[in-house]
């Protein structure tokens, strides 16, 4: 492993409870059933529109952009109250000491992504930060291809570390390997179905024999 492409939300940033409370405010407003943490981890998916439909939003009654922008308005106003996962800085520092190149690839809007990384005082760990240009939580695949191409990364020595099945899908499309952390937005059982390495806590990533060798 020479290069790590990090997911942000749920992987380094512990924002799951905030996301649950935020989506519940939208559900309650529409008289829909609220989610708890466990159910959320079973239904959250990409593209985000599919997740909204699965929990009861009716896009024949309203356009997806309405709740998507409503969610992001609440999320943006409160995301800086979220903390990093306890071992995030330790792992980022560990990779830095090992000489591993580090990047961020996220479905978060670029401007907000940069702002939140700087707020958490970890922006300087990364050679590049790649978010998207909208609030709709679409695929990260195209941005990942851009990252690989622009930085001329060796795909044989590059890994994605994320917390969702979509991170695995991105890795597959980019031709790189993947480690998933079951401490974020999807359950361990769902992640294990991908067949890739799944760890329960972020600090378990140091147990991977390919790191810092």
The string of secondary-structure elements, in order, is EEHHHHEHEHEHEHEHE
**β-strand amount:** 15-25%
Strand arrangement in the largest pleated sheet: 5-4-1-6-7-8
Major sheet attributes? 6 strands, parallel
CATH class of the largest domain: Alpha Beta
Mean pLDDT: 93
CATH architecture of the largest domain: 3-Layer(aba) Sandwich
- Helical content class: 40-55%
Distance between the termini: 8 Å
Structural category is alpha/beta
Count of spatially separate domains: 2
How many H/I helical runs?
A: 9
Radius of gyration: 17 Å
Indicate the multimeric state. single chain
Shape type: globular
- CATH topological fold name of the largest domain: Rossmann fold
Looking at this structure, what is the CATH superfamily of the largest domain?
HAD superfamily/HAD-like
Number of strands: 8
